[in-house]
Amino acid sequence: MSPRTDLPDVLPIFPLPGAVVLPRGRLPLNIFEPRYLAMFDDALKTDGRLIGMVQPAVADGSRLHTIGCAGRITQFTETDDHRYMIQLSGISRFRILEEIDGFTPYRRVKAGWDSFERDLGRSEKDPGLNRGPFLDLLARYFDVADLRTDWGSLKEAEDELLINSLSMLCPFDPEDKQALLEAPSLTTRRETLVTLMEFALATGSGGEGSLQ
User: Fold this and answer.
1) Which of 42, 48, 67 is nearest to 57 (CA)?
2) Where do the Lon N-terminal domain residues begin and end (predicted)?
3) Once rounded to an integer, what is the mean pLDDT over residues 67-77?
4) Per-residue pLDDT reduced to its tens digit, 112-122
5) Which residue from 121, 137, 181, 189 has the least number of CB within 10 angstroms?
6) Which of 64, 71, 74 is nearest to 109 (CA)?
């Protein structure tokens, strides 16, 4: 175990394009593939109940981005067809030091946590966040992307919850999601988020759906 925390040296990973979890954020997942059902069962047997979310760096998944984020299984429900609907609560980002060969059907990595001490601290603030213009931009982006949300909750959310939830749930490309994940501070993440929304507005691009 790491001497700084109780975070493990070896972490099971779930490589999934477009899916990131951020520290203190919450990510819903639908687990149905046999290898990830096995990973889920094994994770539940550990003290930390941690799974590492990592994005593939290439289409076939053979190469991974080096930075991911570990989430703790905090809720789960089993469906009638033996799938699991789970919730991961983000704990800390990590760096993949090496991938571990082994006998598990899912992939595991040696994880380095030392570059991400800020993730284990208190919720971050963004002193530069001007909510009025930011929410106006967000409303225009949601219109282009055909997204719906609870505006009352968004307006009342703390800085970190607002910015991180949008970073996790907005339908940006995987590489853009990775840039949001790797942002060194909440302020730089918000700046990246603004740039991505402005680009979507300029190009008329966006996804469809709703933000929970």
Assistant:
1) 67
2) 11-201
3) 97
4) 999 899 899 88
5) 121
6) 64
- Alpha helices (H) in 85-185, listed in sequence order: 131-145, 151-156, 159-169, 174-182
**Of 199, 163, 172, 197, which Cα lies nearest the Cα of 17?**
172
For residue range 157-199, what is the model confidence (pLDDT) as tens digits? 999 999 999 999 999 999 999 999 999 999 999 999 999 999 9
Identify any residues that bridge with 109 across adjacent strands, giving them in sequence order: 11, 99
Q: pTM of this prediction?
A: 0.89
Pull the structure tokens for residue 173. 């490309």
Q: What DSSP designation does 123 have?
A: P
Cβ atoms within 10 A of the Cβ of 47, count? 8
Count how many Cα atoms sit within 13 Å of the Cα of residue 178 in the half-sphere of its side chain.
17
